[in-house]
Design brief:
CATH architecture of the largest domain: 3-Layer(aba) Sandwich
Strand content: 15-25%
Strand order of the largest sheet: 5-4-3-6-9-11-10
Helix content: 40-55%
Mean pLDDT: 96
Shape: elongated
Largest sheet: 7 strands, mixed
Order of helices and strands: HHHHHHEEHEHEHEEEHHEHEHEE
Number of helices: 13
Distance between the termini: 65 Å
Number of strands: 11
Number of domains: 2
Bound molecules: S-adenosylmethionine
Structural class: alpha/beta
CATH topology of the largest domain: Rossmann fold
CATH superfamily of the largest domain: Vaccinia Virus protein VP39
Radius of gyration: 20 Å
C-alpha cells in the first residue's frame, strides 16, 4: 500500500483530519517534511507504519484529541510536548501573546510572569519573541509544571517554572499574562471530547467561570510594579464582567482585544 492509498482509506477518512492534521500525523510517524510527504506519496509504506497511522486514526475517531495521541502540539510556531495532564494550547491564546508582546515592543518591560502556564505555551512564546526579557511561569498542577519545564528544556528557552497557587510565593513583575480556567461548570457549549479528555482543573471555574479570574484581578495588584500590566484571557462572553470587576477594583486603562474570529478574548489593564 502507498501513503496516498492509506490516506484515502475509509478509516483515515472517518478520522476527518484537516489537511494540516494529516500532515502532522505523517510528519510525526514518518519523520517526513511536507515536501518529502508529497514525494513519498506513491511509494509503498511499511506495514508497521501503516498500522501505526490506522491506530492513530481509530483513536481520533473515538474522540481522543490528536495532540494527546501524538504527544505534540504547535503554538506560535513552537513545537510543544503535551500529554493528557495539560491543556492543549489553542490558537485563540496567541491573541494573549500578541497583546502582551505589543507592550514589550513599546519598551520598559523586563520581568514577565505567566500564571496558569499549563504546557508553558504562553511563557515560551513570550521568551522566544523577547529573549532579552526575564520570563518565568507557574501553575498549580505538578504535572503541568513538569510539562512546562520539559518544553523549556527542549526548546532551550531559559524559562523557569514553579508550582504555585496563583501568586503564592511569587514576587513582583512588570507584566503578568494568564490564561486561567474560565469555563462555567454548567456551560452547555463545551465540546464533549474536550470535557472527556482535557484536565478539568485547566477548564472549569466556579462563579460562572469567573472565580480564578477574580482572584487574579485581586492578587495581581500586589504582584505588579507601579504601572505594571496584566493581560488576561477569558471567555468570549466574559469581557464585560471582567472589565467591570477590574474597574471596580481600581485597575486603569482597561481594554479588551478580539481573537482571530473577532470574539472578545483578552483584557489588558494597568496597575495604578
Ligand atoms: C486554560 S489552562 C491554560 C494553560 C496554558 N496557559 C495555555 O494557554 O495553553 C489553565 C491552567 O491553569 C492552571 N490552574 C488552575 N487553577 C490554578 C491556580 N489556582 N493557580 C495556578 N494555576 C492554576 C491549570 O492547571 C491549567 O494548567
Amino acid at each position: 500500500m502507498t501513503l496516498a492509498e492509506l490516506l484515502r482509506s475509509e478509516c483515515v477518512r472517518l478520522a476527518k483530519w484537516t489537511r494540516s492534521e494529516q500532515q502532522l500525523v505523517c510528519s510525526e510517524v514518518l519523520g517526513l517534511s511536507l515536501t518529502e510527504q508529497i514525494l513519498a506519496a506513491e511509494a509503498p509504506i511499511a506495514d508497521d507504519t501503516s498500522e501505526q497511522i490506522l491506530e492513530i486514526a481509530q483513536r481520533s475517531i473515538a474522540g481522543e484529541p490528536l495532540a494527546y495521541i501524538l504527544g505534540v502540539s504547535y503554538f506560535d510556531g513552537l513545537r510543544l510536548t503535551v500529554d493528557s495532564q495539560v491543556l492543549i494550547p489553542r490558537p485563540d491564546t496567541e491573541t494573549l501573546v500578541e497583546v502582551a508582546s505589543a507592550l514589550i515592543s513599546d519598551g520598559g518591560i523586563q520581568c514577565v510572569h505567566d500564571l496558569c502556564t499549563g504546557s508553558g505555551a504562553v511563557a515560551l512564546a513570550m521568551k522566544a519573541r523577547h529573549p532579552h526579557c526575564s520570563v518565568t511561569a507557574s501553575d498549580l498542577s505538578e504535572d503541568a509544571v513538569r510539562c512546562a519545564i520539559q518544553n523549556a528544556n527542549t526548546l532551550q528557552l531559559g524559562v523557569e517554572c514553579k508550582q504555585a497557587d496563583l501568586f503564592e510565593g511569587l514576587s513582583k513583575f512588570d507584566l503578568v499574562t494568564a490564561n486561567p480556567p474560565y469555563i462555567a461548570y454548567d456551560d452547555p457549549e463545551v465540546d464533549a471530547d474536550v470535557v472527556a479528555h482535557e484536565p478539568a482543573m485547566a477548564l472549569f471555574a466556579e462563579n460562572s467561570g469567573l472565580s480564578v479570574i477574580e482572584r487574579i484581578l485581586t492578587d495581581a495588584l500586589a504582584h505588579l510594579v507601579d504601572g505594571g500590566v496584566l493581560c488576561l484571557e477569558h471567555g468570549h462572553r466574559q469581557a464585560h464582567d471582567v472589565r467591570k470587576l477590574a474597574i471596580d477594583m481600581g485597575w486603569q486603562s482597561v481594554q479588551t482585544y478580539q481573537d482571530l474570529a473577532g470574539r472578545d478574548r483578552v483584557t489588558r489593564m494597568q496597575r495604578p
